[in-house]
Design a protein that fits this description.
single chain; alpha/beta; FAD/NAD(P)-binding domain; 7-stranded mixed β-sheet; 5-stranded parallel β-sheet; 7 helices; 26% helix
Length: 327
């Protein structure tokens, strides 16, 4: 059993900010556990700009923003484990993790900060009728394929949902030579930031169909097309508006869900309105000594706000640990 003052689960912007603040508050033994091969979290695939205006006073890309925090983590000598998956967090703050080097690891923490971020809703959450061909993926998965792995997911694209990632990928795929035929949004207005609608859709002539959704998927081995339709006030498809659209790829940008499987297993109370844990003003969950911050609590529009919130969680976790040591 390894003993650590504070374990931070997740090495994205929330985790790095929380760890740095805990170290600045006087806690020496801080450990970040990250399941990916490098620190930075989702920011590593967000190569567009718009990050850091509040924290750094300048406009950065996602990797640039992550790099600045990664350099601070390294300069502070904060320990981190990469390629490591956390399997369990117990109410008495025992963290069980696994990786290919150390095998199964048990860590007893004075405090735990949950920074697992969020995940995308998939086709299974939408119940779209049709077959199960290749070519249907979330906008975030497509973003990783294009920006980090160097793969183009398709040539003729339809995007369902006008979340920020979906609109950003509409522009990105257009720049890579793909044809983005349309972005469909079931609501009467775009769900993303106005600047993304203007810069990513309007500036590239990509049509945004409001009150419109995908009602059927066509294709056997590979997606061949989708049927789209406008919806009424009850979000029911209007039959006479149905239209077949040829495409080989459907991207889903239909919302984000806080990643809280570990939180539930630890007995932490979850707020049904956000999908994240209930937290106090110092970001402590319903289980004493376990804190949470960033998109695992609720989905943020700006990473700068994630960082500010994570500073609060890191400071509170440090005060909790130092308070125990002082008796």
């Amino acid at each position: 059993m390894k003993h650590v003052d504070i374990v931070v689960i997740g090495g994205g912007p929330a985790g790095m900010a929380a760890a740095l603040e805990a170290r600045r508050c006087g806690v020496k033994n801080v450990l970040i556990i990250e399941r990916d091969k490098e620190l930075g979290g989702i920011l590593q695939q967000c190569i567009h700009n718009g990050f850091g205006l509040h924290v750094f006073g300048e406009e950065l890309t996602g990797p640039e923003y992550a790099w600045r925090f990664e350099q601070q983590v390294k300069s502070e000598g904060i320990e981190y484990m990469l390629n490591t998956m956390v399997l369990e967090v117990t109410p008495d703050r025992v963290v069980t993790a696994v990786n290919s080097t150390d095998g199964l690891v048990h860590i007893k923490a004075g405090a735990v900060v949950l920074c697992m971020g969020c995940r995308e809703r998939t086709r299974g959450a939408l119940n779209i009728p049709g077959t199960r061909p290749a070519g249907i993926l979330t906008a975030g998965a497509a973003q990783r394929f294009v920006n980090m792995e160097g793969y183009l997911p398709g040539k003729k694209i339809v995007i369902l949902g006008s979340g920020d990632i979906g609109m950003i990928m509409a522009r990105r795929l257009t720049l890579e030579g793909a044809q983005v035929k349309m972005v469909c949004e079931i609501m009467p207005q775009s769900k993303g930031l106005i600047r993304n609608k203007v810069q990513c859709l309007d500036d590239f002539g990509i049509p945004l169909r409001l009150r419109c959704t995908v009602v059927r998927i066509h294709g056997k081995d590979r997606l061949e097309g989708v049927t789209v339709a406008y919806v009424d006030e009850d979000r029911k498809p209007i039959p006479e508006t149905m239209e077949y659209v040829e495409c080989d790829t459907l991207l889903l940008s239909v919302g984000l869900i806080p990643e809280n499987e570990l939180s539930r297993e630890a007995g932490i109370a979850i707020d049904p309105s956000t999908g994240g844990p209930y937290v106090s003003k110092n970001m402590e969950t319903s289980v004493e000594g376990i804190f949470a911050c960033g998109n695992v609590v609720h989905v943020h529009d700006l990473v700068d706000n994630v960082t500010t919130e994570s500073y609060i969680a890191g400071r509170a976790a440090a005060e909790y640990v130092l308070g125990i040591k002082k008796g």
